[in-house]
Amino acid sequence: MLALSGSAAGRVEGRAQPTVDLKVSPLAFSPNGDSVKDTLRATIRVDEPVTLTIEIVSDQGVVVFSDAPGVLVQPGPVRFSWNGRKGAPGRGPVARDGHYTLRATVVDATGAQAEAEARILLDTRSPVIVWGEVSPTVLQQGPLYLRFRLYDLATRVQLKLELLDQSGSSIRTGPGSFAAPGRVELRWPRTHEARLSPASYRVSLKGTDEAGNSSTSGARTFLVDHPVRARVYALFHGVGRRIALTFDDCNFSGAWNSILNTLERLQDQGDVLLSRPAGAREPGAGQAHRPRGAFDRQPRLGSRQLRRALVRIGGAASQLGP
Question: What are the φ/ψ torsions at residue 172 (nearest 5 degrees)?
Fold first, then answer.
């Protein structure tokens, strides 16, 4: 909310001039029917009986609203609202997006005059975000940088980063930030390096301007790849000759092939069987059962399905965990 006090105009020497104060909120509004900042409201306060005239003028000098020749009002506050439509009754078409000046003019019984005005923005369109790049596309350490162009009539837009992991779960990204339209570069996180588990992620940007219009950009994908702490369990006593190895979320074909190569080397010590994932069907007619020692070398990367191997090893049994 902004308060502006007008100065006297057309003052007659020796006469007290009327006083007019103007308060407008919001200064940016969007009469587009979405129930968010659809209406501009103003409070005009005068100190004596006056004739009040309200005009709304574009930057090109075109009057889009006027209640001329004005109305007689008593001392105190006068409330005014505008739905963005042209014409005195406010029933015409919505005025074009742009900057306008709301002007309140008062004239008392002696002809003394005073004015107050406020600059406002009518904006019915959402911000437009055009991607440049997300860097790096494979994040091993440090922050993520997002570069894009931002288009909007407002002087600044609030930006909120939205991040989803490969299962579609939302990840907290902290508070948003403000940026002026034009070329923008954002660093995330702003003060430290990214702390994400190795996986694939989708990032998008939500922009909300001063008039309450919002939009969300398309998503960009990036990969997080860095070493994680490994745990090795060995020498399990009393478990018999069989132990299950479970591999979950192998996002890299090289890592999966390394696991399979390890299992193949174990064939010299015992039998190796691959079991079907939970819920998998038995082979149908004409389909051969997978022989012992056969491995799937083209798993679906990024799948949340567990891939299980049943290993029978002579001697002591060992389990390797991620």
Answer: -65, 135
Q: Of 34, 40, 149, 28, give the one whose Cα is nearest residue 99.
A: 28
Please tell me the distance from the alpha carbon of residue 316 to that of residue 47, in angstroms, as a whole number: 97
DSSP type of residue 224? E
- Beta-carbon contacts of 211 under 8 Å, excluding residues fewer than 6 positions away, are 26, 28, 29, 30, 37, 121, 122, 123, 124, 153, 154
| Nearest residue to 87 (alpha-carbon basis) of 66, 68, 73, 69 | 66
Look at residue 266 in the predicted model and tell me its pLDDT. 63
pLDDT of residue 84: 93
Supply the pTM of this predicted model.
Answer: 0.67
Residue with tokens 């191997």: 309
- E-only strand ranges, 166-249: 170-171, 177-179, 182-188, 199-209, 214-216, 220-224, 231-236, 242-247
What is the assigned CATH class of domain 128-224? mainly beta
DSSP 146-178: EEEEEE-SSS-EEEEEEEEETTS-EE-----EE
Rounded Cα–Cα distance for residues 227 and 65 (Å): 65
The answer to whether the 2-122 and 128-224 domains have the same CATH topology is yes
CATH of the domain spanning 2-122, picked from 3.40.50.720, 2.60.40.2550, 3.90.105.10, 3.20.20.80: 2.60.40.2550
Instruction: Find the angle CA(223)-CA(229)-CA(235) to the nearest 5 degrees.
Output: 135
- Residue numbers in the chain where pLDDT is lower than 70: 1-15, 88-90, 239-256, 263, 266-322
Centre a 10 Å sphere on the Cβ of residue 115 and count the other Cβ atoms it contains.
Answer: 18
User: From CA 92, how far away is CA 65, in angstroms rounded?
Assistant: 10
> Could you tell me whether strands 76-82 and 40-46 are parallel, antiparallel, or unpaired per DSSP bridges?
antiparallel
- Domain locations in the chain? 2-122, 128-224, 231-278+291-321
- How far apart are the C-alpha atoms of 242 and 77, rounded to whole Å? 86
